[in-house]
Amino acid sequence: MALPGLDAAFDTLSSGNQAATMTVIRDHVIVDRRSSGATVGGRPVTASTPFVLASVSKLITAVTIAKLIEAHRVELDAPVPWGAMGLAHDPAWNTVTKRELLSHTSGMPVAGNSWLNDAGSCAIPLQAALAAPPLATRGTWRYSNGNYCSLGLLVEHVTGIARDAAARQLVFDPLHIGGGAHLTTEVPRPSDGPYALGVGRLERLGGAGTWMASSDTVAEMV
């Protein structure tokens, strides 16, 4: 299928980046793919090359939670089990639900700089956020990485396995996709797309931003 406008936009985008890929799906059929640049190992990038997803990782976390809800292992409108997850918190968080985390309406503080460039679990800045009550903005949309850090930790609490293993088991494997998807906390693979800032800076994002996956994988999920 010819998509000249989209192809032209891709050419503009790719000219200013080390590498880029694009996958377009309509009615469950891939109708366009584009790629440019080289992988970490120097081979040509393709639409199956894993790239840093950053905040698009939230899609994978959300779909994993959705699968747990479908399996009746998570109740969408029940409070988040902070204590069972090992997270000390102000009592005002006791009524915050998984739905509020998913929809960024929990009153979670933003604290953008807390979620990048430092090593260690996202539970570290999350613990600081939970020490005070939810913000007065609770009930209205306010984007915060803390919401999806919490959901990633919830996945691990409920399943008893690492969140990447849970995503493979619940999301990727049933759809027969995501063979190359992995976390940025792993050593970069020669088959990965380049990331000039270094994947180590993303470690603190947890379920909010530490996936690498291809444009094919992301397109086939939605």
Secondary structure elements and their pairing?
Elements: H1 4-15, E1 19-26, E2 29-37, E3 51-52, H2 57-70, H3 98-102, H4 123-130, H5 145-159, H6 163-175, E4 182-183, E5 211-213, H7 215-221
Helix pairs in contact: 2-5, 2-6, 4-5
Can you offer a commentary on this structure?
This protein has 222 residues and is an alpha+beta fold. It has seven helices and five strands. The chain has helices spanning 4-15, 57-70, 98-102, 123-130, 145-159, 163-175, 215-221; strands at residues 19-26, 29-37, 51-52, 182-183, 211-213. The protein has a three-stranded antiparallel sheet with strand order 3-5-4. It has a two-stranded antiparallel sheet with strand order 1-2. Helix 2 crosses helix 5. It is globular and about 55 Å long. The protein starts with a helix and ends with a helix.
